[in-house]
Amino acid sequence: MTSKPNVTRLYSSFVSGSDATVSLVEVSISPGIPTFSVIGLCDSSIRESEGRLRSAFKSTGFTMPKGHITVAISPAYMRKTGSGFDLAMAMGILFASGQLYLPSGAKIYAEGELSLSGELKATPGSCIRLKTVRGMDFDYKIIPESEVSSAGIAGFTGQGINHLSELNSVFDGNDYQETVFGFDKKGTTDDFLDISLLKGQEKTKRALLISAAGFHNILLLGSPGSGKTMAGKILSGLLPPLGPEELSDVYSLSELIEGDDTDLSFDRPVRVIGPNISVSKLLGNAQSVTPGELALANKGILFADELPLYKTEVLDFLRNPLEERKVHMTRRGVTYSFDSNFIFLGTGNPCKCGLLYEKGTKCRCTVNEINRYLSKLNGPFMERIDIFSEMRSISGDDMASIYIDEAEGESLRYRETVERCWQNAFSRYGDHYLNGNFPDTDIRDAMRIPESVVRFASELSEKGFFSARGFTRVLRVARTIADIKDSDDVSEEDVSEATQFRKRGV
Amino acid sequence: MEFTENTNSDFFYSAMMLNTDINYKTLNDLTMHKAMSNYRDMHNIELLKEIVKGNFDLKPDTVHKVKKLIDSFSDVEKIAKRYKQTAVTKGIEVMSCLDRAYPYNWKHISGMPKVFYYSGNYNIVERMTLGGSVAVVGSRSPSRYAEYATEQICKTLVDKGIAVVSGMAYGIDRKAHMTSVSTAGGTVAVLAGGVDNIYPPKNKDIYELIRSNGLIISEMPPGQQPLRQYFPSRNRLIAGLSDCTLVMEAGAVSGTLHTASFAASQGKEVFVLPNNIYYENALGGLKLLEDGGNVLLSAESVIDSVARSLMYKRMDMGCPAELYYQDQIKDEFGGEPDIDALRELSKIKPEALTDDNWKALIKDSLTLKPMCADELCVLTMLPFYKVSKLLTELELNGTVCQEKGKYSLTFV
Asked: What are the structural domains of chain A?
């Protein structure tokens, strides 16, 4: 052994925000009293890796070399978290100490956490990391076997291994095989409720269809037991499945939060939140830059149950993401953004007793009480809701026919309409925009609304059907209604219908 | 015209009803016990003999009457032949309740004639089914005011294609016919005597006019004199044939009041022209107003009422189908269309109704109680997008307003 420090270099990566950064892991072993130090703004989960490495080496038949061991992870100015550097560090030490043969000039990428027995484990954020790495030029790419479904979704190629001992065959036996990972294509789960369950609630059915067809935010207020919660599950059944690219976006975020036991399916995400949700759960944790429910609902549905009971503070924080369709987080002067492009589905009771919309006059709430109950939903928040519908309890006859008549598959027919509308919107806007989330520029031309129709809408607005801010919302909804009819231009009829979906005072 | 065996039976039926003891009760008894399938079987002497044998569980009175009919069968047939002779020479035609062209309005009221006679342009009846008809009745010696109002209102109505039905008497009847004959709506005169019997004789001028441009109807066979007791029954037919009744002027004791009460009992609206309370010849009409008749302020309210009744008629199966689809059906079935098939066809044809019809229906439903959009969808059988569009329009013109998620009429 010479006195010259023996340095090996490998690559690994870590997640910050919704992106990953590739980092260089350098290991040097120099003679002296045995020490182990990790440098480069690493958090304790990385610094604790000495214990895991030492034990894993021992169980696999390797030995921890004697001497000063220094591991430097760059870029050194960025804070890093996660135990995914274990494999890169272990391989660096094994190469440097000559226990593994390092092919000369080889560029190696490795990630994964080691257990004490030398098994390799996946770490959260794998999909984001592998997406970043997939296009880069490495000679060897080694990941834990349990990350292969992430790799499949990310389009990453490399080799998955289960145990540290397999490294022998990869490097000494030169048995490296670059595989294209597949993933279990479960397709869609069909775990939705059919829209025929809403029999007799024609307005709500129509509202859900329009909402899905144009990606419009929707608010349903109705009596207890009228099927509001059901509406959330029905809406997810109306949306077309995720595309492959969308799947990787959605999966990578949920994998970051939930680890490798995330359900993998083409269904659009449905995130259910309740009145007790905290702002940080909603927006995400700025300290660790982990996404919240808003980001996780991206490309799917954010389902807010019992909306009138929410804290005002929470509703205020919801306003900006609903408008901008993005969530921002700032940590130490760096802003991280997550897409939050979802359908907001809010439900709740219309008044304290909940019977306001029932047939007859069952509700005894005064106008003041009702206004107070819904006060949080008035004003700026409602401006961001495109569609409003009332719900009332299902009558006995309808209930019977729901459970007796087999009307399965109505949702699938609705979904065909929705898919056609999405295609119309994509071909019109040329980008992945839908009527509900198209930017607030000159929508009149982009949405092909004739001048006469705009004038008709402004007449309605003057007569008090909706506010000036609700104006563009009505036009957007009218555009979707025209899409459902497959017509090129928006007509007055469409605006008339869209008007019925505005919420007006009690 | 060609007379078939069926028309011979129709003539026989008329002769039998006028000249023998056989009445509606007897016929009902016979059909109820399935002794015969319809009134035409009475012309079948073999069948009558079969009935007398007592194979059916008939009332003794019925059997007795049938026996008497068999005895006088040849006499009745002679009379029927005479009717037929008159009809052929005078160009009078027969219509039976078994025919498809039988007036729609009569089909739905019991006690309407099984056989009636007409002369003139029968197309008016078919047009009435979808275009509407109004009975205009009143005093034989009206005030200038009532006569003027009759003329003005009839003009507006016939311009809208609504037919005017009346009794060809002096006064209001005459004015109504004069105003409406040879117009878009057309006119129908229902006589108490036979179609060839001009009563009152002085109205010969308008009789000729109506014969060539309008339609003359009577339940009495040709040649029959208009007897006093026939007039109330005639008034019933006038009310039955029309969608609503206008009483222009009626004294305290007047046949016009019969027409009005028939109309009311048939569920039709009665409009009464308001008049001076010190004018005795109008007291009957004013009493009708007191009893809840509609005030005839303008022709518009009449048109609304007719439109409503037309819409219900169209929603009721059968009627529009028979007119709209009969050609299409004829090809499919070959020959006479099957009424049931027609009804089936017409069931889901709400597109024949215009938006205004639907709006009227929505308004009508909302007079009962405030309703939500879902209930209106069920009621009108329209999809939500259609209902919502109509509701916005109704809201826009201020007819309907929304409160607590339910719609109600702005002015009740």
From this structure: 6-180 (3.30.230.10), 195-429 (3.40.50.300), 440-506 (1.10.8)
